[in-house]
Amino acid sequence: MDGYSQKVGARLRSLRKQRGLTLQQVEVLSNKRLKGSLLAAYERGDRNISITRLHQIATLYSVPVNQLLPEEIEGMGEPALPPKLAIDLGQLQGLPERQGSIISRHVARLQQQRQDFNTPVVTFRSDDLEQLAAAYKTTPEMLRRSLHEWGVFRTGQPPTERPEVERQPPAESE
Question: Which pLDDT score, from 0 to 100, does residue 72 have?
């Protein structure tokens, strides 16, 4: 099959694994409307997926359909990853063990290498993201999406100041 089908398949596999589901569990959850062998063929990129089937899977995984599709503009190739991504250590600590254990070990190793222990963020360079993606058995782009979904990125801009709102004391009832 073509490279696009393989990218869609990699995304399907990544989302299934993020949810801790086996192919058989997906089959059961879908009331056997989605056979495990069929999903495996989609995940390998061996079969093209229909819009209807894509919608069924998105519904099952509780994600919008567009999250199942790779971010590629025809003829443009893969979008460039930003050179650095800031991981918020506070948000990282809130991840479930299954999601956070690999990234936490990677962050600890980076902190040790860089002797950087007193900051609320760790910056991932593109090679760090590639190494971490290999540990998660996915692509850097899929991992970037997952990290975004998990809410561990620190935005590049400082939080906007909220204006102080003068609060009125509650009116006393008579």
Answer: 55
SS3 27: helix
Residue 165 lies in a domain: no
Residue 126: DSSP 8-state:
H
Domain span at 17:
3-68
The answer to the question of residue 162 being in a domain is no
The answer to whether 95 and 103 are in contact (CB under 8 A) is: yes
Of the candidates 82, 57, 84, which has an alpha carbon nearest to the alpha carbon of residue 69?
57
Cα-based distances in Å from 145 to 14, 129, 151, 153: 10, 12, 10, 10
Query: CA–CA separation, 157 vs 105, rounded Å?
Result: 27
Last residue within a domain, chosen from 68, 102, 121? 68
Token pair of 35 as six digits? 């056979």
What CATH number corresponds to the domain at position 13? 1.10.260.40
Maximum Cα–Cα distance across the chain: 75
Q: How many CA atoms lie within 13 A of 71 on its CB side?
A: 11
In a domain? residue 117: yes
In tens, the pLDDT along 78-116 reads 444 455 678 888 888 888 887 788 888 888 888 888 777
For residues 174 and 172, give the distance between their C-alpha atoms in angstroms, rounded to a whole number: 6
- pTM of the complete model: 0.44
